[in-house]
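Task card 7
Instruction: Convert sequence to structure tokens.
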Amino acid sequence: MARVVLRNVEKTYAGGTAAAVRDFNLDVADGEFVVFVGPSGCGKSTTLRCIAGLEEVTGGTIHIGGRLVNDVQPKDRDIAMVFQNYALYPHMTVYENMAFALKIRKTPRQAIGQAVDRTARILGIDKILGRKPKTLSGGQRQRVALGRAIVRNPKCFLFDEPLSNLDAKLRGEMRAEIKRLHLDLKSTTIYVTHDQEEAMTLGDRVVVMKDGVIQQCGAPLQVYQRPINRFVAGFVGTPAMNFFEGTIASDAGRLWFDEGAGRLAIPGWATEALRARVGSKVVLGARPQAIGDGGRASANGASANGAAPGQGNTLPMRVEVVEPLGDKLDVYLSTPRHRHVIARVEAGRPLAPDQTIAAHFDLERIHFFEATNAGALLATAAAEPA
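Output:
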């Protein structure tokens, strides 16, 4: 396996008005599993194709195993790529598909047979080696595509959204399979997905991209707990983080976040960062798991379970929709200024549309961002449970 290094990589397509990838810098360690994640059009697949040599970089350098590969043909980069559509040869059997790259290298027939048989057993496809791709299920085809990459024993594995064509159950099984293979093979792997769950569960590190630019790179839990800006905070995590625009106010020696319909106390860990912003707009971020049902709000704002006004941890919110999820409920809430706020609460709560509740905020699990387009992080607690 090998280290992969990208320095100031740029990619602009002919006739394009903006770069598809801009100033991309990344060092993937030998044996590391790195996931590129972001919305469609963010440049993650383009970057992967540049590494593979399927796209020519406009600027910057790419090294694989210490070798500059900018001008090296894809077949000579010693990488293996697994595509979204499997890209199997329809006229070949499973065995022939897996053996093809080794035959091109003029590998001895016995060595090819041993490599294919060993890999097929690992992937559980040793019973279908004589079948053609059209007779296989989606999961079997994906395993064949994985096997074809593994038998080559490349320096680096590249995955371009390989599970997006599978159903949810099979996607989960294949995700676990890919993770197990990585642990067994200790392979350098770069994986592209738009699925945050895949990114969080598979990667040693996650690279979050937007408009061809790296927004944040770090361990999955670090990116989840300490997002660097509003984009990362809103993209990583399911359901997405809720955002509330408000103003920092000072009253009786305390700082408050004034949402309009109510106020939340600024926790001690955020006081220093926000003291200079009294009177200014900021954005409060709270994941659905950090908002709970504090009970039915009364006329004076107190909740039925005793969450009295002045505690600073509740906002009056109207229930719009309740979605049962087994042992949990996703509750869509609103205030006069903010709609489609999601709270994830325990099932069995007596909640119904048009009911007004005192929504309880866990003040140790909220975030504060600038009220600008960039939305840089201003303050966050030391650790938010995943």
